[in-house]
Amino acid sequence: MEGARIGVRLAAGQARAALVTGAEIRHAACPSHDDRALVRMLRGLARDVPVRSVTWDVSDELDPARAGAPVAAVRVMPRLPVRGLGSGHPSPLLRALLRRQAAVIGGHDVFGVELAALDVRRLLEHADAAHADGTTALAVTATGALGCPGHELAAAVLIRDAFPQLRVSLSHQVGGLGLLDREAATVINAALLGTAGRVVERCARVAARLGASAWFVAGDGGRISAERLRMLPVLGLSATGAAALTGAARLAGVADAVVGLAGADGIAVGHVRDGLPHVATDLPGPGGVRMAVPQASLTPISGAGQAAAAVFALLAEHDQHTAVVAVAVQGPEEPDRAAGRGAARELARAVAARLPSASVLVEPAAELAAIGAACTEPSAWLDTILYAETSEVLARAQAAVEQRALTLVAESGARLGSERVVASRAVPLSFLRSGSYRLLVRAGGRAEDVQPSGEPA
Q1: 207 with 213: CB under 8 angstroms?
Q2: pLDDT for 43-87, tens place per residue?
Q3: CA dist list (Å): 212 to 165, 208, 288, 303
Q4: Helix spans in 324-414 (H)
């Protein structure tokens, strides 16, 4: 038998794994807290197959409401607010995570022009206060950081030199146009740094016992390296839905599909193109917080009739899709699986009544997100701002950002030469001066552990 990849979803005290080859899927489960049980499970799946990689969906392990630690937040801005930053964020989750908030003078405009010099003294005073009260991580969000991250980078160096125990999360590494969405993502990222380090180390240790490398599913449906998840754990949130979409398309044997994910709680509708889930950055994340982080665009719907209408709407919007996949998402208990199967079959019948040749019903025996995790490929998503006076300057700047994305894909284990730009959009920002653009770049590649044909190696 040829080599294979394994995907594992850690959730609700259980580890559910799937080994995927070109012709076979094996699955198993075990308690997620026991490393020895995890190793036995993976070895059992790979008993006669050379496995090169294990890709983990750890989004449940990174739930900030449960795994997040209190953090301090510093906003770098050209003018301090008259009444301070206020006592609370609208989100209960953010309020629970923020032990202290402060603002210091500094920042740039979106074109990279410094608006005020960074107030180093006040910055270090706030870092000292955070360190004194036992806070272990600090989130820094600077005005205009996407145009020029200089003040955030300087702040990180100053804080780490003065307080080596403090972990620092910087907003420009997360990306995103909106200051509040970017700040929310940066705070949650800082809160998860300690947990992410432990989770990554553990998963890598277990995979190494199998002689395999460890990778992680990102919210955009691709896989990222252990190092990137350790630095940006916020990228691993909401990964389960994206992995399920990927797994559904793989099981249906298509790369382009509108997908209905059916479970005990209803149906979620999304779509996949070229094997990658459609994603957006303005969707609610954990605790309903909107963050500047890509995640699969899934619309939850209660009934099969409404789900069918949503499926047809997506087909009309994306006419390049050639298949509809209705998927029974199996829960941990048989009643959940039965409810998912019933909803999936009802949706499949509704679609087949109108499009008989376009309906594919998939009822996997394995955890769908684990199958999708095994099938994920290296990816990267960059969301930034740039200024270009001419089309030639825009093309050069866009090419530079695209190259950054391709480099991230290569760092996530892409086979040399397989890296590609999936999408690259320069959107004019009409509320700023002419020549201002928001640039969204998505890149992908094929993993080293697959053959050029695309079948698992």
Answers
A1: yes
A2: 999 988 899 899 999 999 999 999 999 999 999 999 987 655 555
A3: 32, 5, 36, 42
A4: 334-354, 368-375, 391-411
Give the residue extent of every domain in the chain.
72-195, 238-365, 377-444
For the entire predicted model, the pTM comes to 0.89
CA gap 385, 434 in Å, rounded: 13
Structure tokens that stand for 208 in this block: 């190494």
Distance CA 224, CA 242 (A): 13
Q: Look-up: residue for tokens 């894909």?
A: 409
Task: Give helix 179-209 / helix 35-45 axis angle, nearest 10°.
Answer: 70
Q: Give the per-residue pLDDT at 456.
A: 35
Name the class of domain 72-195: alpha beta
Cα gap 227→75, rounded to integer Å = 26
Query: What is the spatial distance between Cα 98 and Cα 89, in angstroms, rounded to a whole number?
Result: 9
On the question of pLDDT at 156 being above 50, the answer is yes
Residues 166, 123 contacting (CB under 8 angstroms): no
Residue 81's pLDDT is 79
Please tell me what DSSP assigns to residue 234: G
* CA neighbor of 310 nearest in space, from 373, 383, 258: 258
Q: Quote the CA–CA distance of 29 and 367 in Å, as a whole number.
A: 9
Report the alpha-carbon distance of residue 20 to residue 373 in Å, rounded. Answer: 10
Query: Out of 154-168, 173-187, 300-314, 435-449, which region has the weakest mean confidence (pLDDT)?
Result: 300-314
Please determine, looking at this structure, whether the domain spanning 238-365 carries the CATH number 3.30.460. Answer: no
Q: What is d(CA 6, CA 8) in angstroms, rounded to the nearest whole number?
A: 7
pLDDT at 315: 76
pLDDT above 60 for 210: yes
